[in-house]
Amino acid sequence: MSPIQQAVAPLSSLIGPKHIVCGAGGSRAILASAGTIMACKIAGVSEWQTMGGISGGSIPAVALAAGIDPRDIMQLTVDVDFSSLVPRHATPISTVIAFILKDRFEYTRPKKGVLSSDNLGRFIDSLVPKWPKNFWTMAVVAKTQVLFTEHGVYQYLSNGQRRVLSNEPAPVGIAIRATCAVPGIIDAVPYLGRHLVDGALSKDGQCPVGIPERYFGAAAKDIIACDVGDEQSRFAPLFRWFWSLLCGGHCVDHTGPMSAISKDVMLIKPKAESVRSLQFKLTTEAKWQAVHSGFQEATVHLSRHGLLTGDKLMHALELCADIDKLKALSARTK
């Protein structure tokens, strides 16, 4: 038995993931997660106990939970103009300064940003007017998580205590806006007397597989997650060093996420190098490249886990090799 066969053999009895988590990463997460979801469909992995995501990853996740076909999710993410969903309401110079101060804002959490998410909320509410079954997303206030579910809204304190904020699900648009609210960049979202921000700022970090594990009883081996990673500009270390020097560590959070991801989670990490996380004016081709990266990386992991075999694997490999075939698949009804 070859080394590759030895690596795959212990996983070949896996029935399939039951929980999908789409991590943060703005435009990269939206697009790569759409590709990952498409690969899961081809593999026949589509019976989800929970579907969730934070930040950009929440958008394809909520579409999936609402019953939208993965082919249509890909096309939707490519067709929609991201910049129209988060229009700028500040001057160009203020916008440039806000992006420079992004690391500091993650710590200070200002209520106002330079981009508005009102249009994003309206878009989501028109796409998904009712909270989908088995969908969750999460936002942050201070050091606590605010979990949005079909059964209600819950705040989890740092000591593990749970507060029931609502026994009814929140408006879907509000929840998605909240999890996407990058401090200082996109306005914080007021909800029940709190101002909620980016779900990536909790102890679970960019890809919160801890949510289904802790709150929905998921086993790590039953989770598939798409994580495009925490993109850093080449100047980010310099800016972080500057603020640390200026403030003595009191205006930049150095702690980072505290929860590690189990090796049993099927963790898919697309590169999505054709777009940047907070880049919202994008060409169609750049978007397709990011979708394709998610599809390719998911195909590799699904095949290694014995979930994508035979004719399905051959079909997926054809799509991996030729992006035009993936485009044609999503445009089947046009």
What would the keywords be for this entry?
single chain; 334 residues; alpha/beta; eight-stranded mixed beta sheet; two-stranded antiparallel ribbon; 10 strands; 13% strand; globular; disordered N terminus
Brief rundown of the structure:
The protein has 334 residues and is an alpha/beta fold. It is built from 14 helices and ten strands.
Characterization of this structure:
- The protein has 334 residues and is of the alpha/beta class.
- It has helices at residues 3-8, 26-43, 58-65, 70-79, 82-85, 92-100, 102-108, 118-127, 172-179, 210-215, 236-247, 284-304, 310-321, 323-330, and strands at 19-22, 50-53, 135-141, 144-149, 152-156, 162-166, 189-191, 194-196, 223-226, 266-268.
- The strands form two sheets. It has an eight-stranded mixed β-sheet with strand order 6-5-4-3-2-1-9-10.
- Helix 12 packs antiparallel against helix 13 (310-321) and helix 13 packs across helix 14 (323-330).
- The longest helix has 21 residues, at 284-304.
- It starts with a helix and ends with a helix.
- Residues 1-14 have low confidence and may be disordered.
Task: Give the topology, please.
Elements: H1 3-8, E1 19-22, H2 26-43, E2 50-53, H3 58-65, H4 70-79, H5 82-85, H6 92-100, H7 102-108, H8 118-127, E3 135-141, E4 144-149, E5 152-156, E6 162-166, H9 172-179, E7 189-191, E8 194-196, H10 210-215, E9 223-226, H11 236-247, E10 266-268, H12 284-304, H13 310-321, H14 323-330
